[in-house]
Amino acid sequence: MPDTPRLHVVGQQQRPCDDCRLRPNCFPDHLQGEFAHHAANVIRPRAPVPRGTYLFRQGSPVTSFFFLRSGSAKSVLTEGDGRESIMSFLFPTDLIGTASMDQTVYHDSVVTLERSSFCELRVNDLADLFRSDPPIQRAFLAKVTSRILNERHARVRLEHSSADERMADFLVELSDRLLELGRDPYELQLTMSRYDIANYIGLAPETVSRVLRRFSDKQLISVRHKQLTIHQPARLRKVATTSADASAD
Amino acid sequence: MPDTPRLHVVGQQQRPCDDCRLRPNCFPDHLQGEFAHHAANVIRPRAPVPRGTYLFRQGSPVTSFFFLRSGSAKSVLTEGDGRESIMSFLFPTDLIGTASMDQTVYHDSVVTLERSSFCELRVNDLADLFRSDPPIQRAFLAKVTSRILNERHARVRLEHSSADERMADFLVELSDRLLELGRDPYELQLTMSRYDIANYIGLAPETVSRVLRRFSDKQLISVRHKQLTIHQPARLRKVATTSADASAD
DNA sequence: CGTAGTTTTGAACTACTTCAAGGCGCGTGG
DNA sequence: CCACGCGCCTTGAAGTAGTTCAAAACTACG
Hints:
Two copies of one chain form a homodimer. Chain A is of the alpha+beta class.
């Protein structure tokens, strides 16, 4: 985990958001001015947790929402028959728990993919936050919308795309996230396993392996273990949208 | 359109929800008591519109959310490359516009599949409604959650299911909706085209046709035009979850 | 009653899966 | 610190479900 924002472990910090590096990305429109004041009362930084930690499990009562601050996680949906589907990968500034806004029971599980840290927002405090700062409510809904759109995109990708398109699109997605966070968008840390990726984009793990190989052969990328480098972002992007491959050189 | 609730065309009705047949389904927890009072001020019934009417188009500014009262509609997402994906089919009591909660611009288009009627909730009134009746806010979020879960289900179905499973699951989904609305759950009106169905469950239209034929041959269902009857709901449900087909009799 | 659009049916094709085995990396324990 | 073992990942070969292309049948609608 190379460039993750250094986390400041705090006991009873007064204004947790004030010195957060992710502040400009977290609630872009509302972290200025008043918000920080209100938010300080309810958004609580938590100590980092190791890889494989469950933030919550599907079926247990909703107690909190979270904002990921460093590291990464996956959201997993378990079906009645025991099959597991990965609904999304989560990165810093992501609001976690968007699928459980009804505030009854968590509808998926969230597990860290590496050592990660979070901010916690207890549901009991949510109503207060909304009341004390009405605009924040819209910002919150915007986060929810963003997740819906992301999941829709993932679904469209499943419906109408070839293996190459899906893989390319997935890589572009990760790259864009890195860019948003101000990191190098061409150096991807695949913190998730190949199985996770395969599950997420609806392919067999073997196919994931083969497609990566193919991209590698075409010089689009290079892969070593969990470190992936994008060499030709434009062509990769083209593969992601146009099923037409950028041929073999 | 057989059993759809009769719509009362109203000019300036005082309390639109009071005599709505769908009331028990619309906001189950909140249409009692006070809610109706607050809601009356902002939720406005609209005159019915013919088939093919756009409630809104992807990209245009968000002005209103809607509740479908009678008929049916589809939500369509247009990709950059012009491909269209059907994200959901909408039925009475559904909240329409859940993917545009950020209140910027509609992120999909919604078109009626038959003569349909709606209630309208203008975004400008939304904040007022939330303020005047805080619990309604949670009910609203619950509706949003419900849609997210529905779309997740649709996605999981795409990831891990055979054509038979997808089709069976789709039919079960429709059947369940009918049941919720108090109609005969075994008499389905396929108001959408085979192309729409194919798009929705991620298959070629030809495959949809073939699968329906197969189900028909197995006596699970019978199909005539757009009228579909479920004969063996239990077996159909089994096909939906267990890829294992209920064999050939 | 004819025409356009939708649905069904048929036959060939192909992209991905599945099954099987080998290699590699990483963590553990000696 | 090095060796071992387990799990993850890759590679290969065969099988198949669903797509694609093409055309006929049906429906709806003027």
